[in-house]
Design a protein that fits this description.
Blueprint: E1 17-25, E2 31-42, H1 53-68, E3 72-79, E4 84-86, H2 91-98, H3 102-120, E5 126-130, E6 133-135, H4 137-144, E7 147-151, E8 155-157, H5 160-163, H6 171-179, H7 181-190, E9 194-195, H8 196-202, E10 207-209, E11 212-214, E12 217-219, E13 229-230, E14 236-237, H9 244-256, E15 258-259, H10 262-276, H11 280-312, H12 316-326, H13 336-344, H14 351-357
Helix pairs in contact: 1-3, 2-12, 3-11, 6-7
Length: 366
């Protein structure tokens, strides 16, 4: 056999993320000789695994490398730690560099678009291993994946309209396909997160597993209602977060529990073992056909969305990201009512308006 060609664009040394080839595990739990899974791991736990510009570039290259590697069976997209898979773009970088610089943010969003597209064009099945919060842009890159298996402690949702953006980096394209228009509308506009149980029940993710252990035994997320019950209005309640004393008691249980991802990793490996026992080209073709439903909307909207998001960095995004980054810990949102009142009076977006609505400029009274 002649020497195999290398189809990667560049040789990459990963610094912002981790890229690992791990043995592919068969149904019997044993590794398969010569076959691997590519683990692409976000590595920014101090900032809830948000992605910087540098990380976005590395993620693009990592998916290209995994796609081209003949020995890779599947890609596992995940993150370090137990708090977050990803909360989206790095708000510190947004606030301190991109806010007020639409031309720069436009270039950044070009990279973001390429990251989402890199996931959608990967020639291997992509599994999102959700180890914690999947919010904002994290939810968008997660939904670009083919499968999602989550910790039952994870939470899912958007944050855009609360922090000066719109969830048009894939969420408005993908979420209605998962849950329907009305339920997507509620999530995308109100930014109220779903528990992992709700996300599973609504069809956003493939499976969930417990990750908490008490006295050596796995327990389900104690903060949620995990059975179907009828509330006072006659609605079916499933997976909702508990409230009041029940929530307080649940948090006390969590404080004594240990986190163990053994069952999550087992579920990921079991899914890949099922993929292993299929024809690879038939699997790739099937996945690419299903991806077309996402791509139909994504390819149609991504450039217009990029341009709007860039211009929005002069107004609402500038205010929202800087409030989140610079505001006091107890208040990282602008005064939405004051903003609407000023705009109703015809006030222009200028420094005066920005300072009037932003928490970091308000005097603290004792």
């Amino acid at each position: 056999m002649s020497e195999l060609k290398n189809h990667n664009l560049v040789e990459t040394t990963f610094k912002e993320i981790l890229f690992e080839k791990r043995p592919c595990i068969n149904r019997d739990g044993n590794p398969v000789e010569g076959l691997y899974n590519a683990w692409i791991i976000l590595n920014n736990p101090k900032q809830f695994n948000s992605y910087t510009t540098s990380a976005v570039k590395e993620i693009i290259l990592a998916f290209g490398e995994a796609s081209n590697d003949r020995s890779i069976v599947a890609v596992v997209f995940t993150a370090v730690g137990d708090k977050a898979f990803c909360t989206g773009g790095n708000t510190k970088e947004y606030a301190e560099y991109y806010s007020g610089n639409p031309q720069e943010y436009s270039q950044y969003m070009r990279l973001f678009n390429d990251m989402v597209s890199a996931i959608l064009k990967c020639e291997k099945p992509v599994i999102c291993r959700v180890n914690g919060m999947r919010v904002g842009g994290g939810q968008e890159i997660g939904m670009a994946c083919d499968f999602s298996i989550a910790s039952d402690m994870a939470r899912f949702g958007q944050a855009g309209p609360k922090h000066g953006s719109a969830p048009i980096g894939g969420a408005t394209d993908f979420l209605p396909l998962f849950v329907g228009v009305e339920r997507a509308m509620m999530s995308l506009t109100l930014c109220e997160p779903w528990t992992a149980h709700q996300a599973y029940y609504f069809g956003v993710i493939t499976d969930i597993t417990p990750v908490l252990k008490v006295d050596g035994k796995f327990i389900s997320n104690p903060m949620v209602v995990i059975e179907k019950i009828t509330d006072e209005y006659g609605h079916i309640v499933f997976g909702n977060q508990k409230t009041g004393d029940e929530l307080k008691n649940a948090k006390e249980i969590i404080a004594t529990a240990e986190t163990d991802f053994t069952m999550l990793d087992k579920a990921v490996n079991n899914l890949i073992a099922k993929i292993l026992h299929t024809f690879p080209n038939c699997m790739t073709k099937t996945i690419s056909e299903v991806r077309k439903f996402k791509l139909e909307h994504w390819d149609k909207n991504k450039e217009g969305s990029r341009e709007w998001l860039a211009l929005n960095m002069m107004t609402e995004a500038k205010a929202g990201f800087r409030a989140f980054n610079d505001g006091p810990k107890e208040n990282r949102e602008v005064d939405f009512i004051k903003l609407r009142q000023l705009l109703a009076e015809g006030h222009e977006w200028n420094d005066e308006l920005h300072k009037t609505i932003s928490p970091q400029y308000q005097k603290v009274t004792v």
